[in-house]
Amino acid sequence: MAYRTILAPYARLVSAQIRSQAQYRTSFVIDLVSQTIFTVLEFTTVFVMFQVTPILGGFDFVEVLLISSLSISGFTLADLLVGNVERLSMYVRTGLLDSVLIRPRRVLPQLLAVDFQLRRVGRVGFSVAVLVLAAAAAKLDWTWWRVVLVVVTPLTAAAFFSAVFVMTATTTFWWIEAREFANSFTYGGRDFTTYPLTIYGTGFRRIFGHALGFGFVAYYPALVLLGRQDPLGAPTWLGWAGAPIAFLAVGLAAFLWRLGVRHYKGTGS
Prior knowledge:
The protein has 269 residues and is mostly helical. 70% of the residues lie in helices and 0% in strands. The N and C termini lie far apart (40 Å). The relative contact order is 0.14.
């Protein structure tokens, strides 16, 4: 009952957003289709890559498609749930954040609910459909733990990307025009995780793949699903490290968000 009391106001905000966006059906359908096309184009780049080479970083088309679909399905889910936090600079400039701060509710859930974008659901649906097709084409040996991993990996990827969205957005509290900086980690991180780590240089791989945790989004779980050893020599158990890495990222994002909100003085500061 306590959870219902806490979540009810946010649920009402989301419900109001959904009703307002669905009111003009033609416009909503056009937005839904256009958003889905963006995700189609993201997968199209994988197809284009394999028009010029049969192997990419030691992986064939189906294997890379599995890696890409694990990553993109997680990213699109994160984008649906928390992606609009990247508009924090606009909220600061217009004073919307100030009005949210005076309400007796948590700030971040209010910001996420007040501008919930239902049209992004098409991107999630398409990326999940590609994941199902890629898993089928890979002819995986379906043990119970593979079933668990193929379900959990997009969810942990979503949690990780959600944390990245929030962490990069918090830079706005110190640097208002930080959107391009944030995009280099959010959308740049998505692009990085779309392909095997083996195609990147050692330094780039160590920074983004290991130090920042992007390698655990899809690459290592995909190796476990495929029953392959890492060409770079990493241990197999890293394929199960996505959840604890995502947990740490969410904790860090929560800390940085609270720090940023305490630092914030008001519009114009």
